[in-house]
């Protein structure tokens, strides 16, 4: 009895020893458990994309169990009365079957669609974070490029998935996709005929898109996501500058116990958000759209939001056709083929372009606050404004209808906005960055405004400033060097008062310890604090 | 308070202005009456001279209901549509031949009388009650004929007797209606500020009248094109499926506007929840 | 613990039984170049009131999660879920699943998060990272090894011309053979059929034994002129078997009955055009419904302004002017179908479209 008990307690040890004798796992495993990750809310945005991808795989597998990617015509006889007897493809009929005759099927379909929208949305938000903080700089250029490819793959996955139910809306999307292929010079008709297996729509496209949607594209996504994460792991995450943080270390929490637990909890939160949205908001009610018919269309026919920028560019494009002898290039070609191509490839090269322009060959593991590189912020703001105007124009008919604006006026506003707003955004954001920079420098040079007004003997009123560093013989602060991190600008940030707000925005580092500049040791709050109170 | 400022302005303008306003009102009324008489006499004269005999005697043949309608017409519609609904160039079209169905639609939904000239007449609170609308319709009908709503007052199919009507109506709806009114019946934009209205609040009678008469820029769907039964099927689909059926896919249907509102929701709700969550996770407590 | 490490500069002996477990962990971290700067409880003393409160809250979150899970199961199994028209219990099936699952997942998620955030000790660790590339001689050795491999294979080939030729001749076909079925199987000639599919629609008389094709509704019934009221429009299809299906996706046509004065203008403009001459019948005109821009049905017919609007990209076409585009991205007018009426009084297409139907492409004449 006693022996067995001892054996049981020893079992894990024996097992672990056995594993290590075979695989030599002890050292690498310890390295993994101990790996340090920096902590900042913006580092979690990419995780949203990762977790929604996992949800997409889970719900997607469920949907494949019921979906039939066939364009065989059938008369619907299912549970939804308003389509009973209607001729439709098997693909559409089985999508209706999932929605109405599979218990919980509609919920799964909606989760899948919301997770797809969230996947793309979080990719864009994550990319914005990477871009504006300069996280793409050497040594991480390749990972940025992989990220851009991931966006493109997600775009394709989304579009193929949107097409699969073969409803009225997705068929319209396919028709436009075929027209985009046709618009390619020289090879257009051949490309379209090859992909659709003849003239649009043919009988093959749903089956082909299906295999692309469930195997080829997810396979590519999975492979690239693995490389993406592997590189983050191998190169270690970037971090913000701050106390103790240098270009050659990572300050944060070890993977276990805390970091991994937070990731697990966050995954649940992402999953919960998708479930909540799938329950609260109806998405893509395909039963209202009817089966695809080449003669039927609905007002407000739009692609999903991440394709909308392309649709918007197509809407805004003037009707310029280029004739070359007997041949011609239709206007659709420029926004849809060239535009999409440029918008997904040019950003890929940005890290190298910027490094070349700044002649910067150093390794950067510390992030830059956006204000510290106004030009980059300007370029980013310009790109995002362009994207935003194009996306809004993709929904300009809905905006026109709901806000009682003329449709033609919306188109013109989009055309003009696309040209004028991005440079304006560049100018404004650069000015804001410079202003913020200047304010930081000002506070470092003169100290924090205390809000205390003092009257000098000569009658002049001045505001007392709390110096952040040492003072010279005359009591004037010695200007401090900017350290690339938040400069305290309020008295409670330097520990003069209790924190005003608890929770979210409580300063990350304990304020009194925070050095404002690497050149200066952490300030001891007390004496100076007294100085103010006495000065009052 | 509201009357204070114009009064003040008048006083500021002086005695002359005040004296001018008072008699002008009376004179205007008098003038209008004289002009009306003159116009009537002239119109009558012209009509007896040129118009075919039957036309000239129209007024006397009007039924009692139509007489009432004519009274309403002469008060509210005549400025734009002209005497005897002949139309006024640049203001309003002739109403000869539009039929009582047209009146039911335009007046019954408050689109007419218009408040001002716009790209499109807006739906608003009807100015005339049901009975008055009927009288107006009767007048226009007797004046020039045209499409009439079915007298049996049946605008929908009974799904108990005719369960296939719903699916047939849906099919007809998608062929004929969705291109402007949308799959979900939410309406849509047309060129240059015109629009196809949402169907959420449209009554069966209104939809029937609209199909029959093609108000404003809507095409006409005469009884030869869509039989009364087909019209009833479409209305059945609209009212049962689009108006009454609660969406099965969630508490909110996002207006059924499609990807536009869905895209707004993913940023407004999804991304917002998760960004606040990550702020909370990374914030020190 | 059992693995013997040769760490001569190790300040601690991990086999020392007096070491606490945390000290061993710290030593492990040190070997991974991690300095654990702070690792301290967030509470003062063990079992403090604050700690108990946090633990209670976390327990509550997990309990809520459990309740959500049970609720989800309950709803999933017992709530009526089959679709019913009107407002029914089943309309709340998906919302209830979503909300209960969200409660369960948020409960678990925030339970774990609160545990990690509030209960686990506060930690600051610093790990060194190495930005330097591999040591100089390592780079050199690997580089030389690769150069060696390349030289061995490459120069070997260069020295032996027979091998070079044989590889080129022998391997290229294998690559092509691998690509051939993929490309060869997919490729389709867009210009093969007779009549060529890009340039013909179902209204081509070839598909109707050389007779003019009737215009039909989607149920296949033919159309008389009086079926379309003035100011009305009708979507029509070629009267051939399957003419209204997606087999003939470029054939849907919009038949419009114009008001007499608009028809007069339309006729003048059509007759002035070489291709559209004599294509109208009475006050009727028929245009292809397939937008020349991206192929959506351009079917938003405004009967007073006589415009056709495409809902996909807002191209607008003027019906009275040969359906020329007047706004938006479309460059080409909508093709006009030559209309006629056969001896039985039904609409027919006198011939196929004279312009190419559908979105534009490179080799369109």
From TrEMBL, chain A:
GO CC aspect terms: plasma membrane
Domain Cytochrome b/b6 N-terminal region profile positions: 15-241
Keyword NADP: no
Record GO terms (molecular function): metal ion binding; oxidoreductase activity; quinol-cytochrome-c reductase activity
Cell location: Cell membrane
PROSITE patterns: CYTB_NTER
Cofactors demanded by this protein: heme
Alphabetized UniProt keyword annotations: Cell membrane, Electron transport, Heme, Iron, Membrane, Metal-binding, Respiratory chain, Translocase, Transmembrane, Transmembrane helix, Transport
Predominant place of localization: membrane
Membrane topology: Multi-pass membrane protein
Protein name: Cytochrome bc1 complex cytochrome b subunit
UniProtKB/TrEMBL annotation, chain B:
InterPro entries registered for this protein in UniProt: bc1_cytC-su (IPR009152), Cyt_c-like_dom (IPR009056), Cyt_c-like_dom_sf (IPR036909), Cytochrome_c_Oxidase_Subunit (IPR050597)
Binding-site list for heme c 1: 77, 80-81
GO MF annotation: an example: heme binding
Domain Cytochrome c: 64-144, 164-242
Record localization: Cell membrane
Listed SUPFAM superfamilies: Cytochrome c
Protein origin, superkingdom: Bacteria
Membrane topology per record: Multi-pass membrane protein
Primary subcellular site in the record, as a coarse category: membrane
Catalytic activity: a quinol + 2 Fe(III)-[cytochrome c](out) = a quinone + 2 Fe(II)-[cytochrome c](out) + 2 H(+)(out)
Keyword Electron transport: yes
Keyword set, alphabetical order: Cell membrane, Electron transport, Heme, Iron, Membrane, Metal-binding, Repeat, Respiratory chain, Translocase, Transmembrane, Transmembrane helix, Transport
PTM (free text): Binds 2 heme c groups covalently per subunit.
Amino acids binding heme c 2: 177, 180-181
UniProt GO cellular component terms: plasma membrane
PROSITE patterns: CYTC
Protein name per UniProt: Cytochrome bc1 complex cytochrome c subunit
PANTHER family: CBB3-TYPE CYTOCHROME C OXIDASE SUBUNIT FIXP, CYTOCHROME BC1 COMPLEX CYTOCHROME C SUBUNIT
Enzyme Commission number(s) from the entry: 7.1.1.8
Assembly description: The cytochrome bc1 complex is composed of a cytochrome b (QcrB), the Rieske iron-sulfur protein (QcrA) and a diheme cytochrome c (QcrC) subunit.
Chain segments annotated as transmembrane: 263-282
From TrEMBL, chain C:
Chain residue ranges for the region called Disordered: 209-233
Xref: PANTHER family: CYTOCHROME B-C1 COMPLEX SUBUNIT RIESKE, MITOCHONDRIAL
Segments passing through the bilayer: 58-81, 93-116, 166-187
Name the UniProt record assigns to this protein: Cytochrome bc1 complex Rieske iron-sulfur subunit
Record-stated family: Belongs to the Rieske iron-sulfur protein family.
Organism from which the protein derives: Paractinoplanes ferrugineus
Lineage, uppermost ranks: Bacteria, Bacillati, Actinomycetota, Actinomycetes, Micromonosporales
Subcellular location: Cell membrane
Domain Rieske span(s) in chain numbering: 282-348
Function comment: Iron-sulfur subunit of the cytochrome bc1 complex, an essential component of the respiratory electron transport chain required for ATP synthesis. The bc1 complex catalyzes the oxidation of menaquinol and the reduction of cytochrome c in the respiratory chain. The bc1 complex operates through a Q-cycle mechanism that couples electron transfer to generation of the proton gradient that drives ATP synthesis.
Major location category of this protein: membrane
GO terms for MF: 2 iron, 2 sulfur cluster binding; metal ion binding; monooxygenase activity; oxidoreductase activity, acting on paired donors, with incorporation or reduction of molecular oxygen
Keywords noted in UniProt: 2Fe-2S, Cell membrane, Disulfide bond, Electron transport, Iron, Iron-sulfur, Membrane, Metal-binding, Oxidoreductase, Respiratory chain, Transmembrane, Transmembrane helix, Transport
UniProt topology in membrane: Multi-pass membrane protein
UniProt biased composition (Basic and acidic residues): 209-227
GO CC annotation, single: plasma membrane
């Amino acid at each position: 009895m006693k022996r067995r008990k001892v054996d049981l307690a020893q079992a894990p040890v024996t097992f672990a020893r056995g594993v290590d004798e075979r695989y030599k796992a002890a050292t690498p495993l310890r390295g993994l458990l101990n790996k340090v990750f920096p902590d900042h809310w913006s580092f979690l945005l990419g995780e949203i994309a990762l977790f929604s991808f996992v949800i997409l795989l889970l719900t997607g597998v469920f949907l494949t169990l019921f979906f039939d990617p066939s364009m065989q015509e059938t008369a619907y006889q299912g549970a939804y009365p308003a389509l009973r007897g209607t001729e439709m493809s098997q693909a559409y009929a089985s999508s209706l079957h999932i929605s109405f005759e599979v218990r919980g099927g509609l919920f799964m379909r909606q989760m899948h669609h919301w997770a797809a929208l969230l996947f793309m949305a979080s990719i864009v938000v994550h990319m914005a974070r990477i871009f504006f903080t300069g996280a793409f700089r050497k040594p991480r250029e390749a990972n940025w490029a992989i990220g851009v490819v991931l966006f493109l793959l997600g775009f394709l996955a989304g579009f193929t998935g949107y097409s699969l139910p073969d409803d009225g809306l997705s068929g319209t999307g396919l028709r436009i996709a075929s027209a985009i292929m046709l618009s390619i010079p020289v090879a257009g008709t051949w490309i379209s005929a090859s992909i659709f297996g003849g003239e649009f729509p043919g009988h093959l496209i749903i089956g082909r898109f299906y295999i692309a949607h469930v195997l080829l594209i997810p396979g590519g996504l999975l492979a690239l996501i693995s490389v993406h994460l592997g590189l983050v792991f191998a190169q270690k995450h970037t971090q913000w500058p701050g106390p103790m943080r240098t270009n050659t270390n990572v300050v944060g929490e070890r993977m276990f116990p805390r970091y991994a637990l937070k990731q697990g909890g966050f995954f649940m939160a992402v999953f919960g958000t998708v479930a909540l949205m799938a329950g609260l908001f109806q998405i893509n009610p395909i039963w209202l759209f009817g089966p695809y018919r080449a003669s039927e269309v609905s007002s407000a026919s739009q692609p999903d939001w991440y394709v909308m920028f392309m649709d918007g560019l197509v809407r805004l494009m003037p009707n310029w056709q280029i004739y070359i002898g007997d041949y011609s290039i239709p206007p659709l070609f420029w926004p849809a083929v060239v535009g999409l191509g440029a918008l997904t490839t040019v950003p890929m090269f940005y890290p190298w372009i910027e490094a070349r322009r700044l002649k910067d060959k150093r390794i950067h593991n510390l992030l830059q606050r956006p204000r510290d590189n106004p030009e980059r912020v300007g370029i980013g703001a310009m790109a995002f404004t362009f994207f935003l105007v194009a996306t809004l124009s993709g929904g300009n008919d809905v905006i026109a209808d709901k806000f009682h604006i003329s449709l033609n006026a919306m188109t013109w506003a989009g055309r003009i906005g696309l040209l004028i707003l991005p440079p304006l955004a560049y100018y404004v954001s650069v000015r804001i960055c410079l202003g913020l920079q200047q304010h930081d420098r000002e506070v470092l040079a003169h100290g924090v405004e205390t809000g205390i007004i003092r009257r000098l003997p000569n009658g002049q009123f001045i505001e007392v400033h709390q110096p952040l560093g040492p003072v010279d013989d005359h009591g004037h602060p010695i200007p401090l060097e900017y350290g690339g991190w938040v400069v305290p600008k309020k008295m409670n940030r330097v520990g003069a008062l209790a924190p005003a707000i608890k929770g979210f925005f409580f300063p990350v580092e304990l304020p009194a310890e925070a050095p404002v500049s690497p050149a200066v040791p952490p300030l001891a709050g007390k004496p100076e604090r007294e100085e103010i109170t006495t000065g009052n | 308070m509201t009357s204070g400022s114009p009064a003040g302005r008048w006083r500021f303008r002086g005695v002359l202005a005040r004296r001018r306003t008072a008699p002008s009102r009376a004179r205007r009324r008098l003038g209008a009456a004289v002009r009306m008489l003159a116009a009537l006499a002239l119109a009558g004269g012209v009509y007896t001279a040129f118009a075919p005999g039957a036309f000239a005697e129209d007024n006397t043949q009007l039924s009692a209901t139509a007489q009432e309608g004519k009274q309403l017409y002469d008060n509210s519609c005549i400025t734009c549509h002209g005497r005897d609904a002949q139309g006024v160039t640049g203001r309003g079209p002739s109403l000869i031949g539009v039929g009582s169905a047209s009146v039911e639609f335009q007046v019954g939904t408050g689109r007419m009388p218009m408040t001002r000239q716009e790209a499109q007449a807006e739906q608003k609170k009807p100015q005339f009650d049901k009975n008055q609308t009927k009288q107006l319709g009767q007048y226009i009908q007797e004046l020039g004929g045209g499409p009439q709503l079915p007298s049996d007052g049946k605008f929908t199919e009974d799904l108990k007797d005719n369960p296939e009507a719903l699916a047939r109506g849906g099919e007809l709806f998608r062929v004929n209606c969705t291109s402007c009114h949308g799959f979900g019946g939410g309406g849509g934009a047309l060129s240059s500020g015109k629009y196809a209205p949402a169907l959420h609040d449209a009554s069966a009678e209104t939809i029937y009248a609209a199909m029959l008469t093609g108000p404003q820029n809507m095409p006409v769907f005469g009884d030869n094109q869509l039989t009364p039964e087909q019209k009833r099927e479409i209305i059945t689909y609209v009212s049962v499926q689009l108006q009454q059926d609660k969406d099965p896919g969630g508490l909110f249907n996002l207006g059924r506007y499609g990807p536009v509102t869905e895209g707004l929701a993913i940023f407004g709700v999804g991304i917002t929840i998760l960004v606040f969550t990550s702020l909370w996770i990374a914030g020190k407590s | 613990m059992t693995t013997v490490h040769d760490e001569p500069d190790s300040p601690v002996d991990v086999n020392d039984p007096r070491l606490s477990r945390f000290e061993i962990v710290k030593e492990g971290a040190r070997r991974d170049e991690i300095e654990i700067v702070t690792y301290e409880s967030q509470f003062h003393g063990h079992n403090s009131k604050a700690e108990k409160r946090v633990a209670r809250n976390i327990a509550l979150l997990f309990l809520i999660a459990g309740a959500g899970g049970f609720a989800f199961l309950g709803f999933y199994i017992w709530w009526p879920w089959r679709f019913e028209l009107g407002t029914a219990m089943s309309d709340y099936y998906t919302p209830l699943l979503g909300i209960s699952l969200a409660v369960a997942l948020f409960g678990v998620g925030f339970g774990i998060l609160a545990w990690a955030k509030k209960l686990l000790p506060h930690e600051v660790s610093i790990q060194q990272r190495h930005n330097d590339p591999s040591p100089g001689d390592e780079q050199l050795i690997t580089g030389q090894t690769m150069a060696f491999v390349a030289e061995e294979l490459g120069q070997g080939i260069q020295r032996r011309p027979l091998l070079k030729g044989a590889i080129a001749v022998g391997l290229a076909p294998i690559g092509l053979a691998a690509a051939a079925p993929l490309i060869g199987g997919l490729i389709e000639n867009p210009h093969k059929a007779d009549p060529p599919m890009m340039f013909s629609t179902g209204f081509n008389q070839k598909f109707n034994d050389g007779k003019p094709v009737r215009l039909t509704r989607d149920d296949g019934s033919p159309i008389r002129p009086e079926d379309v009221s003035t100011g009305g429009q009708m979507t029509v299809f070629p009267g051939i078997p399957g003419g209204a299906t997606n087999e003939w996706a470029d054939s849907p046509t919009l038949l419009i009955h114009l008001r007499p004065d608009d028809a007069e203008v339309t006729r003048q403009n059509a007759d002035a055009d070489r291709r559209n001459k004599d294509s109208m019948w009475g006050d009727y005109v028929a245009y292809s419904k397939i937008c020349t821009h991206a192929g959506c049905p351009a079917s938003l017919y405004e009967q007073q302004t006589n415009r056709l609007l495409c809902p996909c990209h807002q191209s607008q076409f003027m019906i009275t002017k040969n359906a020329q585009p007047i706004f938006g991205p479309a460059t080409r007018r909508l093709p006009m179908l030559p209309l006629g009426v056969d001896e039985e009084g039904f609409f027919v297409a006198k011939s196929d479209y004279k312009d190419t139907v559908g979105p534009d492409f490179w080799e369109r004449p």
